[in-house]
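Friendly challenge for the regulars: who can give me the structure tokens for this chain first? No prize, just bragging rights.
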Amino acid sequence: MAGKQAFGKRVKFNMWIHENQTAGVTFILVGFSEYPELQVPLFLVFLTIYMVTVLGNLGMILIIRINPKLHTPMYFFLSHLSFVDFCYSTVVTPKLLENLVVEDRTISFPGCILQFFFACVFVITETFMLAVMAYDRFVAVCNPLLYTVVMSQKLCCLLVAASYSWSLVCSLTFIYFLLTLSFCGTKFINNFVCEHAAIVAVSCSDPSISQKVILISATFNEVSSLMIILTSYIFIFITVMKMPSTGGRHKAFSTCASHLTAITIFHGSILFLYCVPNSKSSWLMIKVGSVFYTVVIPMLNPLIYSLRNKDVKETVRKLLNNKGYKCSWSI
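First reply, four minutes later:
Bragging rights claimed.
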């Protein structure tokens, strides 16, 4: 009994020490402050990108909701992808824009941790949402007669819920191990976003456990999602090549082209960042890569899907001509 009381007191004491160590912590996001002549041009570029991102993703969600032709599993997943892109960009870009126009680039410790948490939630969700969409395309191309049966509303909702749930589990795990580290005083984070590698780089304690946890988890998420995508598209390719007509093959490939483009850009950016070593000379490359997958990709996805889709373009034209649709919230 005495041993348990001593253990409890020791845990409380350690928590008290950690709270005192992090209470006065302030982070300064370095961002692109090394290039003062680029602050205004970068602000204008990122502001334009963010406006296009917001309008594109919210517009895509609206278009999918109001057009009955788009109440299918594929567009149900696409509406969630647009929601994730909007949220992801909103977590990162406003703070980036603020730091480009103000001299005070500080961010509180809780604010930094929250930004990292939500960024993790949405990037992991997008990773598996793209994998879910690959499975959807596999069913549509390889089993078209059973498509509506297999991709039922219940299964679609379950797949989306699983993506969000797994991202929450991973993000909470990252935060738990990140909060076991000690931080003291004012630290400069050599990035424009509270990213894990930049945060642990300014830790006052050994970050090896936290780094191993996020490396294992990130590798698992990347490999497992890519395996689902590659397996789906291998079967799609085999099925398409067996089609007798050239028109049928072209139609099948065209339905997958937008998704393949989005996958290539998203996973290509992440794999690029994996390959960049964490050295002082490579921080600029890390920042550029981070800008691409946190700011640019959320803007590109709605453009990729809208420019290649006749139904989406038709809905936009009718909206512009004031010929609206009755809103429906079903798949």
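The chain has a mean pLDDT of 81. The beta strands are 26-29, 106-108, 186-189. Your move, everyone else.
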